[in-house]
Amino acid sequence: MDIILWGVLPYVMIVVLVGGLIWRYRYDQFGWTTRSSQLYESRLLRIGSPVFHFGLLAVIAGHFFGLVIPKSWTEALGMSESLYHFNALFVGSVAGLGTLSGIIILIYRRRKTGPVFMATTNNDKLMYVVLLAAILFGLWTTLASVFFDEHGLTYRDTVSPWFRSLFIFQPDVASMAAAPTSFHIHTLVGMLLFIVWPFTRLVHAFTAPLHYLFRPYIVYRSRDKGASVPNRSGWSDVGTRDRDTRQR
Amino acid sequence: MRVMAQMGMVMNLDKCIGCHTCSVTCKQAWTNRAGVEYVWFNNVETRPGQGYPRRYEDQEKWKGGWELNKRGRLKLKAGGRVKKLFGLFASPVQPELKDYYEPWTYDYKTLVDAPLGDDFPVARPKSLITGKDTKITWSANWDDDLGGTEQLGHLDPIVEKVRRESEDKIKFEFEQTFMFYLPRICEHCLNPSCMASCPSGAIYKRVEDGIVLVDQDQCRGWRQCMTGCPYKKIYFNHKTGKAEKCTFCYPRIEVGLPTVCSETCVGRLRYLGLFLYDADAVTAAASVTDPKDLYQSQMDVLLDPNDPAVMAAAREQGIAEDWIEAAQKSPVYALTKVYKLALPLHPEYRTMPMVWYIPPLSPVVDLLRDQGHDAENQDVLFGAIDALRIPVEYLAELFTAGDTELVTEVLRKLAAMRAYMRGISLGNDPDDSIPASVGMDGATMYEMYRLMAIAKYDERYVIPKAHAEQAHDLEEMGCSLDFDGGPGMGAMGNSPFGEASGRPTPVAVETFNALKDRQTSDSVAGADTLSGRVNLLNWDGNGAPPGLFPQHHPTEPPADVPALEGGGGA
Question: Which Gene Ontology terms describe the biological processes this protein takes part in (chain A) (predicted)?
Fold first, then answer.
């Protein structure tokens, strides 16, 4: 069981994530969008969305430090165990709670604003469940490690070595299996999130427009390259009836 | 000098009667889809009025276009690249649906389906966004013909500005004397701020004809272009999550046909043609310090297509001979550079717009006539133009960044033309002092009159076709194997893979040819023009042309019906 969960599943996840992204990039460029709903409502969005996104960026940075940087490195820098954990818990909780409050505002908005709710697909709903679960379980691991002693602050000795071992194709199943259950759940939900990622609106994250900083302002393109495919899903009839058929 | 070609448009506002035919036909052609119900690539605004979306000209609020930074360099008014990226998660100043309007339909079904009762059934308005009952409170032309101006007229940003500057309380007296229509499409700017705002780089300007398009595959829905465009002519398709905009009907332009808005314009007020411009000079021209100089700097970017040096440079850039020729015959070049009648819309946004406007003289003429003056006399007209301070200031805010001299000059030319031509049509000798009073000679003024008033179809629209060697890349195309007996064997119909296989004849071309034949022939539109099929949109209701009904003996087609070929209608 441990081997399947911590030795096989991570690689399945990576294959699905990378394969899914390549597939979608090649065959569904047109569907690759943020599907913004700011046109319908922007008062709540203007609070919720930045809180959520910036919180998430901080969370991702935190995961990077926790998982990728080995304990020996921070110790070599002279950072004591308790200082590290105080930092991690403090920054992690702030970022995590920010992300959580952001997504709660966004979900509330999505449910309560008529047009936004109408524009929510089943795909979106599934995505929100998985995303919210990943955030909640993640926060739980952080809080539990403070309030319950048996959890300890051991993830840098269990989860992190396993995470790094995945990249050299020598999965350290045993050390992950030794981690507390809350970490197991959070990791599983996280992997599920990455599996559905390419097939939901979350894909927009992979085309974060950082090249905007470097490209020229004015873009010229020859007509030869501009030829496009006719008859896409943008061309469907106007009418309230669309409501029923809108989910592609 | 890097010479590039740009398709441009000029609209003669004197001729616009505000019938909205351009808007409606454009909507039918481009935005009759779910997700863009509220979108009008072409809209017609009554001025004074708030426009669509409401108060879009208030750039202190909407942050569209460019401004100069402290060092005198161009900078997006909404902020630089880093600031834009930080605003990505919730666009700070994006218009919402309520700034446009909530699109609706009517529940027509109730009229038929309602059970018998005491009350007469009514078709209630239903929101196209929520599908629920809605109350109609605004639309794209709610203040049409100054409707509600008593209450809302002060909300026009230009009125606000003119009033602020004149510093005295101007009542809306001029509303009765001064009203005109302003049809608006995308400006297909030389220095587009929407393009500069797009984080994905999905908006591009076509090298060949300067048409600005959104790559629907590359657009990721970051919505910065909506803020960036000061004319608010980029719209968000809320169903697909992508930006959409006026395409200058590029599939029609490529085959030499005018845009739908131009083709269907009742007043025939639109002119289409080429500009040649110096692409290397654009940024410098858009960066001049005084906004009032922007008109002149924009004019200087446009090159004289008859200048041998320009022609040589154009050839060097690979611009084809027939395109250079079209640029020489271009009516839009004549109206902007030669006669200097057409002005750009809001040059102060520094985007170098390429849809130009001839300001309207008719409100002045109407006013004079109503007051019992001779509205065709140049002295009366000149006097009125000088006396009507507010209208001229209003026009100047629209077209010349506030420079009233320029607007006055154009209006005086139009007035002189009226007076000069009246003399001629009354059989008098041409009075050459009239054109001289606006710095023209009689022959030039007569030429100008021809282009303004007579303006036959092929003089209004001088559109060189896209080049055949590129034709295989065009979206709307016939099959290259579609010659007689070739493997294509007629785009549809006889194809070995059934009716729908193969590529259809471009609808624009077929409809255009069918309409032209129908307009010029006396007989019923028949099999010849419609390739054996009946396009009901073109059927004039006379008789039953072959192909209207299925054949009784499908095995033996009648001799007068040619082999089924060519695509069906719309």
Answer: anaerobic electron transport chain; nitrate assimilation
The reply to whether residue A53 touches residue B474, judged by beta carbons under 8 angstroms, is no
For chain A, percent of residues with pLDDT exceeding 70:
88
A184 marked as part of a ligand binding site: no
A29 min Cα distance to partner chain B (Å) = 5
Chain A nearest-CA distance from B131, in A, is: 5
DSSP 8-state secondary structure symbol assigned to residue B140: T
Q: Give me the count of residues in chain B.
A: 570
Identify whether the C-beta of residue A117 lies closer than 8 Å to the C-beta of residue B131: no
Tell me what pLDDT residue B279 has. 94
Residue A227 is nearest to which of B82, B132, B475, comparing CB atoms? B475
Element (H, E) at B363: helix B362-370
Q: Which residues does residue A220 pair with via DSSP β-bridges, in sequence order?
A: B205
What share of chain B in percent tops pLDDT 90? 65
Tell me the shortest Cα–Cα distance from B320 to chain A, in angstroms.
15
Own/partner contacts of B509-518, CB < 8 Å, gap of 24 or more, are: B509/B255, B509/B257, B509/B476, B510/B535, B510/B566, B510/B567, B510/B569, B511/B535, B511/B537, B511/B538, B511/B569, B511/B570, B512/B257, B514/B538
What are the residue ranges spanned by the domains of chain A?
Answer: 2-214
Cis amide prior to B48 (ω within 30 degrees): yes
Contacts of B283 (CB under 8 A, 6+ apart): B74, B191
Predicted model pTM = 0.82
Contact B105 A238 (CB under 8 A): yes
Other Cβ atoms less than 10 A from the Cβ of B559: the count is 6
| A238 vs A84, residue with greater confidence | A84
Strands A220-221, B203-206: pairing kind: parallel
Q: Is A63 annotated as a binding residue?
A: yes
Judged by CB atoms closer than 8 Å, whether chains meet at A115 and B97 is answered as yes
ipTM: 0.85
Per domain, the residue ranges of chain B are 481-570
- Interchain CB contacts (distance < 8 Å): A and B: 172
One of 2.60.40.10, 3.40.50.2300, 1.20.950.20, 3.30.450.20 is the CATH number of A2-214, namely 1.20.950.20
Interface test with B, best of A36, A201, A229 (most B CBs within 10 A): A36
pLDDT single digits (tens) B342-370:
999 999 999 999 999 999 998 888 878 88
Residue A156 CA, chain-centre distance (Å), reads 21
Q: Which residue of B has its CA nearest to A29?
A: B217
CA nearest to A169, candidates A63, A11, A3, A2: A11
Annotated binding-site residue? A211? no
Secondary structure element (H or E) that encloses residue A144, with its range? helix A122-147
In sequence order, what are the beta bridge partners of B68?
A: B74
Query: How far apart (Å, rounded) are the C-alpha atoms in residues A72 and B420?
Result: 93
A240 and B128 in contact (C-beta within 8 Å)?
yes
